[in-house]
Specification:
Layout: H1 2-5, E1 10-15, H2 26-42, E2 53-58, E3 60-61, E4 64-65, E5 74-76, E6 79-84, H3 96-109, H4 117-121, E7 128-133, H5 138-149, E8 154-157, H6 164-167, H7 172-189, E9 191-194, H8 197-204, E10 211-214, E11 236-241, H9 250-257, E12 264-269, H10 274-287, E13 293-297, H11 301-309, E14 313-316, H12 325-332, E15 337-340, H13 346-352, E16 355-358, H14 362-374, H15 376-393, H16 396-412
Parallel strand pairs: 1-2, 1-7, 2-6, 7-8, 8-9, 9-10, 11-12, 11-14, 12-13, 14-15, 15-16
Antiparallel strand pairs: 3-4, 5-6
Helix pairs in contact: 2-16, 3-5, 5-7, 9-10, 9-14
Length: 418
């Protein structure tokens, strides 16, 4: 094992979007945090130096484009990032420039200097690894195809994109076509990285990858938080902090809140498609709870931790989440969580007794809210202990070392490249 870990490696991260495209929510934070931690660890020769880690991404920023330099690497928080224009402005994020940029970098890293394409394809560089983030977009799928063509090992972090829920949900027909024509064979070539045991189980229901490994996301914390929340209040303050979309289960939360017999207020922080947000507002009005809900839109990274600390409970009743960064962010400031059992961190929250786990039944969610409201002692203990626990369990340096070890085991453990 030591001889493997002493080896040198280079990693190209492929992601359809990158900082500062915060409109895409948690994955942007997770990918950026991972790359920054790997480069930071490289200072101590345990991680990857700036020259050893590159990010290739697009200018995607929702329906708009980021105002950034195109086609040449720039440093973003110490990470070398190259942005490419995309030809489509939708969720497919097709970018011809990115694909050519990836090919150029692969060929540059081949040990054989021959100009013969076939010769280069037959002489893979054992030191190079491609780490692809997310799936079902053309950046990820076609980058995987390029890597497989040139026989470069691939680590894929699906980030919740390889579950039965996702496959059967939005754009399900196009996903099934991509999966049948190309995706299924490409996924067999990949080493899969899952962020939780639940995500691992979901993935294995769909595909049998070359290998699969669980390592948690890296999540940003902010210590200390200046606002100390009073535990005993007449009104129970709940917070939803996430991208607003169907899988988050806000309708379920609304229906449960409509039948609880306690005084409450709900703050909703985040953005989503305007049509869907408006449908939620109509539902809240139909349920007679709209005056107890405050919609504050997107919250900056600088402000969100104080916002979390001011609330009694962070609620996320999602149909499916591979990880859910907001759970760790909330606990890092001592705010308990109420989450569905279909969230990747549900087992962690249950094991550490850091909140309440519920199903997707309205009565179950109602019961969870009432339990959280009445159990002041448990909330007090979480306020005191949660920050220490998550700071230990999700330590940047320790997790970054796990990723480096994982990369080297993928690179230097013999696997068939077909």
């Amino acid at each position: 094992m030591n001889s493997i870990l002493d080896e040198k490696l280079k990693v190209i991260h492929i992601t359809a979007s990158y900082k500062p495209a915060y409109i895409y929510g948690g994955p942007i934070q997770s990918v950026g945090k991972l790359c920054e931690a790997l480069v930071s660890l490289g200072v101590s020769d345990k991680g990857l130096g700036t020259d050893d880690l590159q990010v290739l991404t697009t200018t995607a920023n929702g329906t708009k484009e980021l105002d950034v330099k195109i086609g040449a690497p720039i440093l973003i928080n110490g990470v070398s990032v190259t942005y490419f224009k995309r030809q489509t402005k939708d969720h497919s994020h097709f970018s011809l420039g990115l694909l050519f940029g990836l090919r150029k970098r692969i060929l540059r890293n081949h040990q054989d200097d021959s100009n013969n394409e076939m010769s280069k394809r037959q002489t893979p560089n054992a030191k190079l690894l491609i780490h692809i983030h997310a799936w079902w977009n053309l950046v990820s799928v076609l980058s995987c195809f390029v890597a497989k063509w040139y026989r470069v090992p691939v680590v894929l972090s699906p980030r919740g994109m390889l579950t039965s829920y996702t496959l059967g949900n939005r754009n399900s027909l196009s996903k099934k076509i991509i999966h049948a024509l190309l995706g299924k064979q490409l996924l067999k070539y990949c080493h899969i990285h899952a962020t939780s045991e639940q995500e691992k189980k979901d993935i294995l229901k769909i595909i049998t990858p070359k290998s699969i490994t669980v390592i948690p996301n890296l999540v940003s914390f902010q210590f200390p938080v200046s606002n100390i929340h009073k535990l005993i209040n007449d009104t129970f303050h709940l917070l939803f902090l996430s991208r607003i979309e169907e899988k988050k289960g806000l309708e379920l939360l609304f229906e449960a809140l409509a039948i609880v017999n306690i005084p409450w207020l709900l703050t909703i922080a985040g953005t989503g498609k305007s049509e869907y947000v408006q449908s939620l507002k109509r539902k809240a009005k139909e349920l007679g709870i709209h005056e107890q809900i405050t919609w504050i839109g997107q919250v900056s990274n600088e402000d969100k931790f104080n916002l979390l600390a001011k609330h009694d409970l962070t609620a996320l009743t999602s149909y499916n989440e591979n990880f859910a960064n907001v759970v760790v962010e909330s606990l890092s400031v001592g705010t308990p969580v109420l989450i569905s059992k279909f969230i990747g961190l549900a087992d962690y929250v249950a094991d550490k007794n850091l909140g309440w786990i519920t199903g997707l039944n309205i009565e179950e969610i109602k019961t969870g809210i009432l339990s959280a409201y009445h159990d002041i002692e448990k909330r007090k203990e979480i306020r005191i202990n949660a920050a220490i626990l998550v700071n230990t369990d999700f330590n940047d340096g320790a997790l970054a070392e796990q990723y480096v070890e994982y990369y080297k085991n993928v690179l230097f453990t013999p696997f068939p490249l077909t």
